[in-house]
Each structure stands twice: as C-alpha cells, then as structure tokens.
Amino acid sequence: MTSKTKSVAFFGASTGVGLAALKRTLAADHKCIALCRDPSKLTTIFPSESTPNLKVIKGNAHDISAVSQCLQTDDGHIVDVIVSTIGAKPRRMTVDDPDVCKKGAATILNALAQLRSAGITGTPHIIGCSTAGFSRFGRDVPFVMIPIYYLFVSVPGADKVVMEDRFAQSGESFTIIRASHLVDGESDKTIRVGIEDPKTGPECRAIGYTISREDAGGWLAENLVLKIDAKYLNKNVTITY
C-alpha cells in the first residue's frame, strides 16, 4: 500500500449511497473492506478476480466482532476512513428497525475502543450518512416538504439524530452527510452544499428538494474519502440539487 492509498471500511454499501461511494472509491484504486449480511450482493457486482482491492466480510453492522474485523487492515492497523450508510427499510408508515443507525454508531465506536485497548492503532475519519430535515438550528428543507418529513421520516430521522450525536460527541474525526430526499438516477446536476457546526449552527445553507443516491454517493467519495477539505471536518454537511 502506497502512502497515497487509503483503507476504507464500508457499512451499508450493498445499495444506494453506500454502493455509489464504494464504486467511486474502488475506481480510484483504494483498499476497501465492506461488511454485508449477504456478501453475494457485492461479489456479484465486484467479482474477486477483477476487484482485488475489495474485501467483503459477512456480518451484521450491530455485531461488534464482525465490525471489528471490518475496521482492521491486513497490516494490523485501524482503517483510514469509515463510511456508514446503514439505514432502516420502510414498512408502511414506519421502518423495520427504528434504532438501526444509533446501534450501528455505538457498535463502530465500541469496536474502535476495543481495538485500541488491544494495541491496534489508528485515527479514522468517520462519515455517517444522515438526512436533511432534522437540524436543531432551523428549517433545512423546503417549507412544502415539512409535512412529508413529519409523516414519513420522523422515526428514522430521530434515529439518525442520535447517530449524529454519538459520532459528534465521540472525540473521533467525523463528517455527517445530510442528503435531501433521495431519488434514483445519476445526473450532471449541480450539487449544492450546506455546512453546519453541531455546536454553533449553520455556516452556509443549502435547502433543496432532492438528490440522487448515485450523485450523493459520488459526492461523498470525491469530497470526503478520496480527499477531504478541512471545512467539512467535524461538521454536518447538507447535499442537495
């Protein structure tokens, strides 16, 4: 591994934003480790013979043993970057697991603590995928979207707020991505970016309706994994069209 090559752990990369970010990271020739309950979802897309930089580990993002495996490089260090895009699946008016993100964040942080107590070193940058609509510093979605977020996103949104807080209060380097309403389809649309400090509030705002999963994942990879601008460190970052 060269000094320019990063090691990146992915949680929730079998679909959506995470998959798009994984594709872009692999294309840039970085080392990736992905945790997946069904590894075939990734190995079908990324055959091992043509994707030597990807290691897929079978397991659940709430299993500290599996998560710990995903956070370690082959040479015995903690990975450089952690990307968590896990989320609950819709189920009628709620979701299948209303605590999936908060439990995932706790598991990652506990796994890091255990690895360090065992003498394994590293200071990763944690990237957590959240959602717009739940800022503590005022409205961050279009006014007409507020009822939709209230009716359909309040439960998973509350879970993501706890996730955000856990990463922000952990002492680890972090960036929270707050995507506006996710749709399908890569595009060439301009992505606008808002930045919020978790303690002091907005530094600049970006309020919009949608962004595609593919574009959100590509932006995440390009701006937070392949390189990282200091203005995004330890911030909540909204991305939208």
Automatic annotation (TrEMBL):
Annotated ranges, domain NAD(P)-binding: 12-222
Family: Belongs to the avfA family.
Pfam families: NAD_binding_10
Stated name of the protein: NAD(P)-binding domain
Entries under SUPFAM superfamilies matching the protein: NAD(P)-binding Rossmann-fold domains
InterPro entries recorded: NAD(P)-bd_dom (IPR016040), NAD(P)-bd_dom_sf (IPR036291), Polyketide_Oxido-like (IPR051606)
MF terms (GO), sorted A to Z: biliverdin reductase [NAD(P)H] activity; riboflavin reductase (NADPH) activity
